[in-house]
Every structure is written in structure tokens, then in C-alpha cells.
Amino acid sequence: MKIILLTPMDIEREKVLSALSRIPNPKHEYEVVVSGIGRESTAKTFMHLPAHDVCVLMGFAAVVGKESSLPEYLGLGKPIEITTASLYGYEGGLFENGKPIQVEPQLQLPCLSSLTSDKFVRTTDLAAGTVVNMEDYTFMYLKKPQDFIVRIVSDFLPHERDIDFFEEVKGIDFLEGVLAVDVL
User: Fold this and answer.
1) Of all residues in the chain, what percent carry a pLDDT higher than 70?
2) How buried is residue 125: exposed, middle or buried, by Cβ count under 10 Å (0-12/13-18/19+)?
3) Is residue 90 pLDDT above 80, yes or no?
4) Is pLDDT above 60 for 102?
5) Distance of alpha carbon 136 from alpha carbon 102, whole angstroms
6) DSSP code string of the chain
7) How far apart are CA 96 and CA 105, in angstroms?
8) What is the pLDDT of residues 113-130, one digit of tens each?
9) Contact present, 36 and 45 (Cβ < 8 Å)
10) For residues 147 and 117, is the Cβ–Cβ distance under 8 A?
């Protein structure tokens, strides 16, 4: 099976490639494609992907809540599957007032809901365990039934201190997330 692993950023691509290089005998053929950050970049890239059987959006996840009070499966670096995506803050265009999209899980990973927004989100108003990003709703809207999203927990919202995101995520490994996909 040919699987495309779609990543919003180059750093995620590097982490996916590193994980793939450590799997001795992968069950599938993989291609890693960087879409760029945001709904428009995701849509443009998704509509021009090479032939494939499954596409997996794989990237970092900002999770609402304090790491110390969230379940262990939502710890830093843990993979999760997004099975519900909703939208906040868009005006006009294709995705205005988009209703939540729900899908069945494809993997044996914890499942979370995701909120896509490019506007300021008051994270204190969101349920703990919600993922906040800029791509999931667009991907869910355009995807084929067999496609899905795997996110790797990278930070917690609201941030309790100023962070340098790229420094914070240096030590995060995508191996567990890629292995979860390879069992398909």
C-alpha cells in the first residue's frame, strides 16, 4: 500500500523521515510531503498529491490543558488520532460556519477532537484535551474515507511561560506515531 504522510512543516517531515529510517521492514511504501501551514496550503497540496492509497496528516498538536493534569496518554510526544474536527473564526468562503466533521478511528490510538482556527482562540474556554491547529478541518473536509490524522503532542495551551516552539519540540520523536500507521 502506498501511504502519503502529509506534514505542515519541514521539522515534522524531518521527524517522520527519521522515524521511517528506524523501521527495519516497513509494511508499506511511504512518501512524505510538506503542505505548509494553514488551511489554504493544506487544501492546495492535498488537491495535487501523487497517486496513493492512504493519506495521513501527521504533525504536532497543541493540546488544551496542563500536562500535569491531563491523562498520561496526552503527554509530550504521544501520538493521538483526530476523529472530530471543528472550525472557529472563519468568515466567508468555502469553510464558513462549517459543522463539525466526525470520522471513525483508523488506528489503535487515543482519539481527540480538534479545533481549526486562524484567529485568536481563548484556550481557557475550551475543554481540556482539545487539539488546536490550523489544518485539521480542511484535511477532514477534503479527505477520502480511508485518510486520517495523527498528531504528536508538542505543547499545552495556554502556555504557562513564553516558549520557543522549535526548541521545545527538538526532542520529540515521531516513531510511535509512524509505527501506529505502519500496522495498517
Assistant:
1) 91
2) exposed
3) no
4) yes
5) 12
6) -EEEEEESSHHHHHHHHHHHHT-SS-SSEEEEEE--SSHHHHHHHHTTPPS-SEEEEEEEEEEES-GGGS-GGGSTT-EEEEEEEEEES--SSTTTTPPPEE----SSS-EEEEEEESS---GGGS-TT-EEESSHHHHHHH--TT-EEEEEEEEEES-SS---HHHHTTT---HHHHHHHHT-
7) 26
8) 998 876 656 566 788 899
9) yes
10) no
User: Residue 124 has which C-alpha cell?
Assistant: 481557557
Task: Measure the CA–CA gap between 50 and 48, rounded to whole angstroms.
Answer: 7
What's the pLDDT tens digit per position in 137-167? 989 999 999 999 999 999 998 877 788 888 9
What's the mean pLDDT when you consider all of the chain?
Answer: 90
**Residue % of the chain over a pLDDT of 90:** 72
Q: From CA 15, how far away is CA 23, in angstroms rounded?
A: 13
The residues that bridge with 29 in the sheet, in sequence order, are 2
In the predicted model, is pLDDT for residue 92 greater than 70?
A: no
The region that residue 89 occupies, defined by phi over 0 for left and psi between -120 and 50 for alpha, beta otherwise, is left
**Taking the CA of residue 28 as centre, how many other CA atoms within 13 Å lie in the half-sphere pointing to its CB?**
21
The label of the residue with cell 483508523 reads 106
Q: Report the alpha-carbon distance of residue 79 to residue 111 in Å, rounded.
A: 9
